[in-house]
Design goal:
Distance between the termini: 20 Å
Strand content: 25-35%
Number of helices: 2
Low-confidence stretches: 1-10
Order of helices and strands: EEEEHEEEEH
Largest sheet: 4 strands, antiparallel
Mean pLDDT: 80
């Protein structure tokens, strides 16, 4: 996944060039590592604690009070860090 950039020079299009970032690469790793059916939330930033959080769980698990047995939460200093750590 990336952004497609293009430019036109005197009416003739230049070839597309795929642009990728470290964050895009981290998300690709996470998509490949996530077990089928699992839900991965959106990363959230908490500036008051200077932390990013990311949460994932298996929605097929039966609801019980308290924590799920098949869940994972990661916190770290950057969005890329938490996404890569979740992919491990």
């Amino acid at each position: 996944m990336g952004f497609r950039l293009s430019a036109r020079s005197i009416g003739s299009p230049l070839p597309f060039r795929e642009v990728s970032t470290d964050r895009d690469d981290a998300w690709s790793e996470l998509r490949a590592a996530t077990p089928p059916g699992w839900f991965v939330g959106r990363p959230s930033h908490h500036p008051e604690r200077e932390k990013w959080l990311l949460y994932a769980f298996d929605p097929s698990e039966r609801p019980k009070s308290g924590h799920r047995s098949r869940e994972w939460e990661v916190e770290g200093p950057t969005e890329e860090y938490v996404v890569r750590e979740m992919a491990r």
